[in-house]
Specification:
About 70% of the residues lie in helices and about 5% in strands. With about 350 residues, the chain is mainly α.
Length: about 350
C-alpha cells in the first residue's frame, strides 16, 4: 500500500514537472516569435530611404519628392524619423534580452559600441573634402541614429512612464534651446537657424531625434507584452499635437520656430512624425499580425526588414552608381525608373540573405 502511494506521488510529481516543462517551452517559443509587422515597418523605411535618396540627387526631381525647403512637409521628410522609430520598436526587447543573457557590463558595452559605430560610419559616409576649407563632416541619418541610441541607453532601464516623461520633457526643453542665439563666423543666429545649415538638424537637431527614439521606446516598450491599442492612441494624440503646434505658429507666430520643418528639426515635426510612425505601425500590425492577411509572410518587405541596418549601410553605393551613370539633368521619369531598379536589386540581395538565413547585425 505504501509502495503504491509512493509510486503515485512520484508519478504525480513527474507529471507536474512535465507540464511545467511543456509550458516553459511554449512560453519560450512565444517569446521567440518574430512579429511580421516589425519587419514590414523596417522594410518600408529602407525602401523609402533607397528610393528617395536617389531622387534627391537630381535636378529635375519634382519638389514633392524632395525634402521641403525650410518649413513644409513632403513624404520624403517622414522617412528618416520612421527609420528611427523602427529602431525604437525593438530597443527595449533587445536590451532586456541581452541583459538577461550577458549581464550589465557586456550589455552596456555592446550597445555603446553599436551606436557609437553608427556615429563613426555616419561621419565617414558624409565626409567631404574642399581644397580651400580642408576636411568637413556633415551630419546624416547614421549620426542621428547613433546619437539617439546612446541617449536612449541612459534611460532604458527606467519605467515606461518615466521614459515617456523624460522624452516629452526633452522636447519641451529643446523648443527653448532652438531660440538660443550664438555667434557663427562673426554673425549672430539662433540654434534653429544653425540647424538649417546642416542636414538632419546637425548636432543640436539630434536632440529632437534622441527624444523621438526615447519616447518611441515608451510607447512601444516590450512589444510582446503590451496591449497594442495604446500605440494607436499615442500616435493619434502626437500627430494632433504636432499639427496643432504648427498651425498655432502659422497664425499666431508662437512658439518661435514652431512650424513643421525637417531642416530645422522643429518640435512640431518631431511630434507629428512620431505620431504618424506609431499610427502606421499599428495599422501594419493590425493587418499583418492581428488579421494575418498574408498568413504571416511577406516576400516583398520582410526580407528588407530582416537586414535593415546592413542594407541601409550598403545603399549609398547604389546612390553613387546612379550619380555616375546618370547626368544631374536627367528626366524625372528616368530617375524614378533607375531608383525603382535599384530598390529591386537591393531587394534581390535581401531576399537571398533571408533565404540563406544570413542576418547581419552591428
Amino acid at each position: 500500500m505504501k509502495i503504491e502511494q509512493q509510486e503515485s506521488i512520484v508519478s504525480s510529481v513527474q507529471s507536474e514537472v512535465a507540464d511545467k516543462s511543456e509550458k516553459d517551452e511554449i512560453n519560450f517559443e512565444e517569446n521567440k516569435k518574430r512579429f511580421l509587422s516589425i519587419d514590414l515597418f523596417r522594410g518600408l523605411a529602407i525602401v523609402g530611404m533607397v528610393f528617395v535618396n536617389i531622387l534627391t540627387e537630381f535636378d529635375n526631381t519634382p519638389s514633392w519628392s524632395k525634402h521641403a525647403v525650410d518649413y513644409g512637409l513632403t513624404y520624403v521628410d517622414l522617412i528618416a524619423p520612421f527609420f528611427i522609430f523602427a529602431i525604437s520598436l525593438t530597443y527595449k526587447m533587445s536590451f532586456d534580452s541581452t541583459l538577461k543573457r550577458e549581464g550589465y557590463v557586456k550589455t552596456y558595452t555592446k550597445f555603446v559600441t553599436r551606436y557609437g559605430a553608427l556615429v563613426g560610419f555616419g561621419f565617414i559616409g558624409t565626409l567631404s573634402i574642399f581644397t580651400n576649407e580642408g576636411i568637413k563632416f556633415s551630419w546624416g541619418v547614421l549620426q542621428a541614429i547613433g546619437y539617439a541610441g546612446i541617449f536612449t541607453l541612459f534611460f532604458i532601464l527606467l519605467p515606461r512612464i518615466v521614459r515617456f516623461v523624460i522624452g516629452i520633457g526633452t522636447l519641451v526643453g529643446y523648443q527653448f534651446i532652438l531660440n538660443i542665439s550664438v555667434e557663427v563666423e562673426g554673425a549672430m543666429m539662433t540654434l534653429a537657424d544653425l540647424n538649417l545649415l546642416d542636414e538632419h538638424g546637425g548636432v543640436i537637431g539630434g536632440i529632437g531625434y534622441a527624444a523621438l527614439m526615447l519616447t518611441g521606446t515608451a510607447i512601444i516598450d516590450d512589444f510582446r507584452e503590451k496591449r497594442k491599442l495604446p500605440i494607436l492612441v499615442s500616435g493619434v494624440v502626437f500627430s494632433a499635437i504636432g499639427t496643432t503646434i504648427h498651425y498655432i505658429w502659422k497664425f499666431k507666430g508662437v512658439p518661435l520656430y514652431g512650424g513643421l520643418s525637417k531642416e530645422r528639426m522643429t518640435v512640431s515635426y518631431v511630434f507629428l512624425t512620431l505620431g504618424l510612425g506609431a499610427v502606421l505601425f499599428w495599422l501594419i500590425w493590425y493587418l499583418f499580425d492581428k488579421k494575418e492577411i498574408t498568413k504571416g509572410k511577406s516576400k516583398i518587405l520582410q526580407p528588407y526588414g530582416r537586414n535593415s541596418l546592413f542594407l541601409y549601410l550598403l545603399h549609398p553605393l547604389f546612390i553613387l552608381f546612379a550619380i555616375l551613370y546618370l547626368p544631374e539633368s536627367s528626366h524625372a521619369a528616368l530617375v524614378m525608373f533607375v531608383a525603382a531598379v535599384n530598390v529591386a536589386i537591393l531587394w534581390l540581395l535581401a531576399f537571398v540573405l533571408d533565404r540563406k538565413k544570413i542576418y547581419i547585425v552591428i
